[in-house]
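Feature request, filed as a ticket because there's no other form

It would be nice if the structure record came with a short human-readable summary line next to the tokens. Right now we just get the raw output. Example of a typical job, pasted below so the devs can see what we mean:
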Amino acid sequence: MFNSVLLEGQLEWNFPVLFILAIITILYALSLIYFTNIKIYHVRPILFFVGISLFYLVIGSPLSIISHLSFSFHMIQMSILYFIVPPLLLLGIPVKFKIDALSYIALVLFAILFFLYHLPFVLQTLYQISYLHKGYTSLLFVLAILMWWPIVKLGNKRFTIWSGLLLTPACLLFIVNGIMGGITNPFLQGLVLSLCLPEHINVVELLPFHINPRVDQISGGIVMMGLHKFGLMLISRFSFTYTQ
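Raw output as currently delivered:
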């Protein structure tokens, strides 16, 4: 059975993050009211509010800990955070300007850092230094915003192709490793480090179900590719139809 006692105090909602996001949401709503003709019930602000809600769900809710029980669960969390939330937020912002050069740099850096993040020795190092881990993931989010900008705001199809190409290697790494029986789930060790569990505790015993490591790896790679493509489809659906 899932040992909830060991996770007691960890599966909590992050209220400081909720407060910050509430302030951002209020400022956004006031900006629309006083500086634009866009109504709060328009599709554009609704997409922004959905983006804010998803951000809190994957960062400030108990899911941020639970996601580390499985590689595929973690990839769902990361994919939503970097491939779904940024375009939703950008769709809700009625501002357009070109940052092509900066976006290409951001895309390359994101692809490299995202790939490195999922290497076991990098991940375990980050989990041992909390501030470094938060800084690393925050940097990834900023880079994600910049790399989505030309796709969402300018409809740059060439950039869309480059985005798909540069992010594919990380997905393929997880799938190939799963097929070859390579690395297992590095996030379970990260969970041990983040929860400060005793060394004698086998974190696998915390799981409410058995997860085949190879299937978990393959599923994680497929989920990442699928949600990235879903993000691109989301943009094509809303970018020019409802937010102009």
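Something like this underneath would help us a lot:
Residues 71 and 133 are 18 Å apart (CA to CA).
Residues 15-238 form one domain.
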